[in-house]
C-alpha cells in the first residue's frame, strides 16, 4: 500500500501574472521548480491565501530567475496578481517509508526568489 504524502511545498509565493487565454497550468520559474524538486508537467495543488481558492493543475517552466508565478487558463480565474499562494506537490510513499518521511519545504522572499530550502 502507498500513502499520498506532501512531497514538496513552496511557501508564500506571490502571483506575478495571469493569462486566461492559455490552455491551462501554472508557470513557475525553474529555480523554484528545482528547489522544490517539481518537474515540468507534474501535478500540483495551488492554495490561494487571499481568497481561499484551491486548484489542481500542472506546472510548466517559465523564465529562469524571473520569479514567474503565472496562473494560466481557467486557473487565472482563481487568483489575482499580488495574491499569496502555496504550491504543493504530492507523491505516493510506500507504507514502510511513511514513518519519518519529511517533505522538501521551500521558502521565498517577496520577489519569489528562494531564500531557504529545508530538505529531508
What's the arrangement of strands in the largest beta sheet? Answer: 2-6-3-5-4-7-1-8-9
Q: How many distinct helices?
A: 2
Return the string of H and E elements: EEEHEEEEHEE
Major sheet, described briefly? 9 strands, mixed
Structure description:
The chain has 120 residues and is mostly beta strands. It is 9% helix and 49% strand. A nine-stranded mixed beta sheet has the order 2-6-3-5-4-7-1-8-9. The chain is globular, with a radius of gyration of 14 Å. The model has no long low-confidence stretch (mean pLDDT 96).
Short description:
The protein is mainly β. It has helices at residues 30-36, 95-98; strands at residues 2-14, 17-19, 25-28, 43-48, 54-61, 69-72, 84-94, 104-108, 114-118.
Descriptors for this entry?
120 residues; 9-stranded mixed beta sheet; 49% strand; globular
What is the topology?
Elements: E1 2-14, E2 17-19, E3 25-28, H1 30-36, E4 43-48, E5 54-61, E6 69-72, E7 84-94, H2 95-98, E8 104-108, E9 114-118
Parallel strand pairs: 1-8, 2-6, 3-5
Antiparallel strand pairs: 1-7, 3-6, 4-5, 4-7, 8-9
Amino acid at each position: 500500500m502507498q500513502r499520498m504524502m506532501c512531497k514538496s511545498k513552496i511557501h508564500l509565493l506571490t502571483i506575478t501574472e495571469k493569462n486566461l487565454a492559455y490552455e491551462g497550468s501554472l508557470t513557475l520559474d525553474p529555480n523554484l521548480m528545482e528547489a522544490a524538486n517539481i518537474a515540468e508537467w507534474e501535478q500540483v495543488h495551488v492554495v490561494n491565501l487571499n481568497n481561499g481558492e484551491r486548484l489542481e493543475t500542472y506546472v510548466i517552466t517559465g523564465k529562469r530567475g524571473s520569479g514567474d508565478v503565472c496562473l494560466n487558463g481557467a486557473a487565472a480565474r482563481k487568483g489575482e496578481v499580488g495574491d499569496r499562494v502555496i504550491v504543493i506537490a504530492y507523491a505516493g510513499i510506500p507504507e514502510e517509508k511513511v514513518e519519518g518521511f519529511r517533505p522538501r519545504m521551500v521558502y521565498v522572499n517577496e520577489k519569489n526568489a528562494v531564500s531557504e530550502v529545508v530538505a529531508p
